[in-house]
Amino acid sequence: MTEQARVRRFEQVALPHLDAAYNLARWLTRNDADAEDVVQEAFLRAFKFFDGFRGGSERAWLLTIVRHTCFSWLQQNRPAEVVAGYDLEVAELDPAALDPTFRAPSGDDPEIALMHQADEDLLNEMIATLPPQFREVVILRELEDLSYKEIADIAAIPIGTVMSRLARARKALQRAWLERRTQEVRHGA
Amino acid sequence: MEHDAVEADVHAYLDDQLEPAQVARIQEHLRTCPACTELYERQRAMNSVVRQHAHYHTAPRHLARSIRSTLRAHAELERPRRRVAWGWFASGAAFACAVTLTVSLSLFQLGPRGEASSLDRELVAAHIRSLMVNHLTDVPSSDQHTVKPWFDGKLDMSPPVVDLVADGFPLIGGRLDYLDQRPVVALIYGRRKHLINLFIWPQPGSASPRNETRQGYNLLRWTAGGMEYAAVSDVALGDLEEFQKLFARATPASG
């Protein structure tokens, strides 16, 4: 295959998943320009490894490389984020860390109801504040709708770890979120 | 079934990732346990909030284009017929050798149009590479009096260097590049958010200006005062033509 033909074939395989790649990179770098750089680099890497692609889910294959490129980038540029002060596999995530206005729940049980724009912003901020190892699992599950097995392959962790990280991330989000709603109900917002 | 077990499996249940037997056990428990049902409902509501309201960041439109160009530039470099040297000859010895060899050998044979298209390809590839490899400038300066002397002693020519900031084309810096087996001057100019690489090398004779579009980049080439100029950028051709006019006007000696 000529180099040009290889480029064309690669583009057919990879470019349809550009949004998925960008979405993951954008969530992990939390910045437009950095996400673009990382995606560019990931595509070039994927192209170099293209001969090693043995079929299967093209999106999962590409996301594996994007994810790896993101974490290399984070290690290099923001090492503090990757080794966040959480004990990754044991401790509960602290909802207070996700929402600066968090206070301990008081027993009320508000509905998760209509969203206002401010709520939506807050929700996205909460997700963005999760440590990246938890954030990626939430994004791949909730936004890409990937199976636990696929997420495990992409993030290079056992399925059990996918489950526990997802559970802990969701629990932290839910507690922070409910508390937020409680406050709004109480203050008549 | 224990509450703890439900709590552990409720996510996998929500995500439809359990075996049928496990599903049946959870459903059975939920039917009889209001506490776990509440836990389940609350988590289900939260998941749907996340799914509906977490931003899905779609790629900006220009990203696909720039990935395509990067890949094509990469493929060009891999072509066996002629490797463009990656070097911006840092080492003096290698550089001195290259200068003597290439300048004496290749000063005159760029002309024929048949060769031109492979040079065009190299020009575009060099432009893309300068953006890719974090090596845009050797001498980052908007001061023409800094950039011009920097080339002295590195080349056998003295390129015209002007800042066109007043006309909307600020000088960003200069770089030594290597094209068609010769060292060339590359001046970098800004145009709003975009960059223009202006490649300059000695070229006796003159040819009328011509332009071309390759891989989404515009290329404008002209000759003046014994030099050949090639401007490459993703800005519109009209902008490049304006740039050419301004550059020629500001460097009367060479144009």
Write a short abstract of this structure.
With 189 residues, chain A is an all-alpha fold. Chain A is 69% helix and 0% strand.
Keywords:
heterodimer; A: Rna Polymerase Sigma Factor, Chain: A; Arc Repressor Mutant, subunit A; 69% helix; elongated; B: 255 residues; alpha+beta; Phosphorylase Kinase, domain 1; 2 domains; 8 helices; 20% strand
Give a written overview of the molecule.
- With 189 residues, chain A is mainly α.
- Chain A has two domains: 3-81, Orthogonal Bundle (Rna Polymerase Sigma Factor, Chain: A); 86-186, Arc Repressor Mutant, subunit A (Orthogonal Bundle).
- Chain A has ten helices and no strands.
- Chain A has helices at residues 3-14, 18-29, 32-48, 58-77, 79-82, 95-98, 117-129, 132-143, 148-155, 159-186.
- In chain A, helix 3 (32-48) packs across helix 4.
- Mean pLDDT of chain A is 83; it is low at 102-113.
- With 255 residues, chain B is α+β, with helices and mostly antiparallel strands.
- Chain B has two domains: 3-53, no CATH class; 61-254, 2-Layer Sandwich (Phosphorylase Kinase, domain 1).
Write down how many β-strands of chain B occur, each being a DSSP E stretch of 2 or more residues. Answer: 7
Please trace the helix and strand order of chain B, writing H or E for each element: HHHHHHEHEEEEEEH
- What's the helix-strand series of chain A? HHHHHHHHHH
Number of β-strand runs of chain A:
0
Chart the SSEs and their pairings:
The complex is a heterodimer of chains A (189) and B (255).
Chain A: H1 3-14, H2 18-29, H3 32-48, H4 58-77, H5 79-82, H6 95-98, H7 117-129, H8 132-143, H9 148-155, H10 159-186
Helix pairs in contact in A: 2-3, 2-4, 2-8, 3-4, 4-9, 8-10, 9-10
Chain B: H1 3-14, H2 20-32, H3 34-53, H4 61-78, H5 92-106, H6 113-132, E1 139-140, H7 144-151, E2 171-179, E3 182-191, E4 194-202, E5 210-214, E6 217-224, E7 227-233, H8 237-250
Antiparallel strand pairs in B: 1-2, 2-3, 3-4, 4-7, 5-6, 6-7
Helix pairs in contact in B: 1-2, 1-3, 2-3, 4-6
